[in-house]
Amino acid sequence: MTEEAPAKETPEKEKERPPMPRDVILVGKKPIMSYAMAALMQLTESGEITIKARGRAISAAVDVAEVVSKRFLSGSAAVKSVIIGTEVLGEPPRNVSTIEIKVSSKPKK
Amino acid sequence: MTEEAPAKETPEKEKERPPMPRDVILVGKKPIMSYAMAALMQLTESGEITIKARGRAISAAVDVAEVVSKRFLSGSAAVKSVIIGTEVLGEPPRNVSTIEIKVSSKPKK
User: Fold this and answer.
1) Fewest CB within 10 angstroms: A54, B36, B45, B77, which?
2) pLDDT at residue A4 above 50?
3) Is A82 close to B85, i.e. CB distance below 8 A?
4) What is B24-105's CATH number, 3.30.110.20, 3.30.450.40, 3.90.850.10, 3.40.50.300?
5) Pairing relationship of beta strands A48-54 and A24-26 according to DSSP bridges
6) Dihedral of alpha carbons A106, A108, B2, B6, sign
7) Which three-class secondary structure state does DSSP give residue B105?
C-alpha cells in the first residue's frame, strides 16, 4: 500500500509510461478474457504474475485473477496477496484507488 | 466474471438474505461517501469492520476502504486484509467476483 500521497515533482502520468515488466498485467477496458489469456501465458512462463488496475478497472482485475486461479489453473495456481492503495493522478490531481493482485502457480505435487 | 457454474442444489440467492452483522458494510450502488460514513461510525464503535462487495461494486468497496483509512482516519486506522473470491449467484447461475476488506483502528500510542 502506498501510505503517502505527497506532491510529486514528476507528473504522475509518467508512471504509466515506462514499459511494464512482463510479469505485470495492467488491466484496463479490454474484455476480461484478453487479460486472462495474457496472465495465463505469463504465469506458465514465470510462475508468478502481478495483476494491477486503477479506478473502475479494479473489478475487472479481480475477475481476471479469479478466472486464472479458479478456472484456468484451478488447483495449480492461487492468489498470494492482494494490496489496495491510492494514487494521485491527473490535472487537477485526484485520488484514484489501485489494486495489485499477486497470483503464483503452485509447485506440482 | 462471466462463466458457467456448476448447478447447485440450494439457490445461492439465499446467501444474500440473512441480516448483515453490524460490522459488515455491504457496498452497492449508493455514493461512496454514504458507505464511508457508515463505515467510519461502525469503526469508531467496534474497532474493526469488513467492507464487502460483489461484481462492479468491488471498485467502490476499495474506494470506501481507502477513504476511511487514508482520509478520515489517516494514521489511526489501516487495511488489515483483503480477500477476493467468487460466488455463484442468480438464475441461471453465474460466477461473480467478491471482495472482503478488513479495516481496523490502530490502538492509540
Assistant:
1) B45
2) no
3) no
4) 3.30.110.20
5) parallel
6) negative
7) strand
**Ramachandran angles phi, psi of A101, nearest 5°:** -115, 120
Report the number of secondary-structure helices (H) and strands (E) in chain A. Answer: 2, 4
**pTM (2 decimals)?**
0.80
Predicted pLDDT at A20 = 63
pLDDT tens track for B48-96: 999 999 999 999 999 999 999 999 998 899 999 999 999 999 999 999 9
Q: How far is it, in rounded angstroms, from Cα A101 to Cα A83?
A: 7
- Kind and range of the H or E run holding B8: none
ipTM value: 0.79
Q: CB-CB: which of B57, B62, B85 is closest to A99?
A: B62
pLDDT in the model for residue B53? 98
